[in-house]
Amino acid sequence: MNSNEKEFDYKEETDNDELLFMAEEAEEVAEQPQEKNISWDSAGDIEAGSNWKILVVDDEEDIHTVTHLTLDDFKFSGKPVRILDAYSAAEAYKILSEEPGIAIMLLDVVMETTTAGLELVQQIREELNNHFVRIILRTGQPGYAPEREVVTNYDINDYKSKTELTADKIFTLVSSGLRAYKSLLSLESYRRDLQKKVEAAVESIREKDHIIIRQSRQTAISELIANLSHQWRQPLNTVMALIQDIEFSGQSAELSMEYLEQQSSKAMGIIQEMSETIDDLRYFFEPVEEFDEFEIGEVVNRCVKLLEPALQEEKVRLEITGNLQIKAKGYRNDYAQVILQIINNSRDALQESKTADKWVKININANDEGSLVEIRDNGGGIAIDAIDHVFEPYFTTRFKSPGKGLSLYMCQIVIEKNMGGSLSAGNIENGAMFTIRV
Questions:
Q1: Given a cut of 50, is residue 419 above it in pLDDT?
Q2: Average pLDDT, stretch 367-384?
Q3: Domain residue limits at 320
Q4: Alpha-carbon torsion angle 384, 345, 392, 426, nearest 10
Q5: What's the CA gap between 381 and 199, in Å, rounded?
Q6: What is the largest CA-CA distance in the chain?
């Protein structure tokens, strides 16, 4: 049989009065034009096969016989059909559970019970979560399943009376059902491809975030080391002066045990303070991964202790107000690095401004959502055209300071994504304000 011949032949071969199909004389039907096959991933009840699967669910043997006679030679898009038979709703449910890729189900309503077919529709859509198979309800007893009620209340794709299903109408019904099924597969294929692309893009963004965070941490380390050098410069000078004084006293024969003990005690005190500074530095970079409750005032004070020498040298006054005992839940060290970064941003702004009385003020309070920390400065504020971009990666208005633009983006990730809070920026009179809510 070639493409110019009929796609299928059907002749009535039985005089059984109970046969519900009204077969017409065989007519020549043009074969459907070849369509380009669409590939899709095998998953769930979607499977790329060499044929179209049609499930016939009916408790009457004659219905199965006539359906086979009508569709055995049927082809759609160059692929033949494979007909599966079920004689009860329970048998159909088992086949649908085990056999993927069923395109069409021709379903009777009245089988084990008067509503067995309708109950099967609900099981297919809700329990099996199968929304691909095209369900064509065909009934010989419409009184048990009024068309309007069934179409309204059940997720079916067509409703036919068995008495109206001639050979031509079966051909049309199956062709349109397979075309709809194929379109669904195409859409599902596109959806999955798009999902893969979105997941790949999200993964790429995550990887970029990790890179940015690592770069930000390296920048933060270099800034803390710079602060440490400021903090150690004066005590080292003092220790050097003590050693020189001991040497001078020895040359002048004024060296005594009491004097040595006194100078040694001073030097040891200074070295102890420097050791504590090392501990403070380790506090910010030790791997604390626990999501735990911490006291905000204690974190802020540690930050200020590290920055204080540099702030004093730059003549920046730092004030802490509010309730320092308020607690927050999150990652303590990450929170501390956010505080450090925002203060350093204020320092940068104050260095560029020519303000005489420079200050940074930190206010700690609570609100209905949790803790509220506001960090203000009088460094002139954020430019209007930049305020909406300060948390974007790689954005910076300080082109002479590479890496600075990374840090606020990292801060937002830490507060919003890792701790479930919020970080915002805005302007106040003659300055900027960053607000942290956790």
A1: yes
A2: 90
A3: 206-437
A4: -40
A5: 38
A6: 138
Instruction: State how many domains the chain has.
Output: 2
Element at 10 (helix H, strand E): none
- Which of 53, 52, 11, 8 minimizes the C-alpha distance to 30? 8
pTM over 0.85: no
Distances (CA, A) of 313 to 119, 181, 184, 316: 81, 75, 70, 8
Residue 253 lies in a domain: yes
Q: Is there a contact between 7 and 33 (Cβ–Cβ < 8 Å)?
A: no
Q: Which of 35-49, 179-193, 363-377 has the lowest mean pLDDT?
A: 35-49
Rounded Cα distance, 39 and 231, in Å: 67
* Residue 436 pLDDT level (bands cut at 50, 70, 90): very high
Q: How far apart are the C-alpha atoms of 177 and 155, rounded to whole Å?
A: 14
Choosing from 165, 186, 217, the residue where a domain stops is 165
DSSP state letters, 338-393: HHHHHHHHHHHHHHHS--SSEEEEEEEEEETTEEEEEEEE-S----TTTTTTTTST
Element (H or E) spanning 423, and its range?
A: strand 422-428
- Examine the domain organization and report whether 371 and 233 are in the same domain: yes
Which residue would you say has higher pLDDT here, 94 or 401?
Answer: 94
pLDDT classification of 260: cutoffs 50, 70, 90: confident
Pair 265, 407 in one domain: yes
CA dihedral of residues 337, 342, 345, 349 (deg, nearest 10)? -160
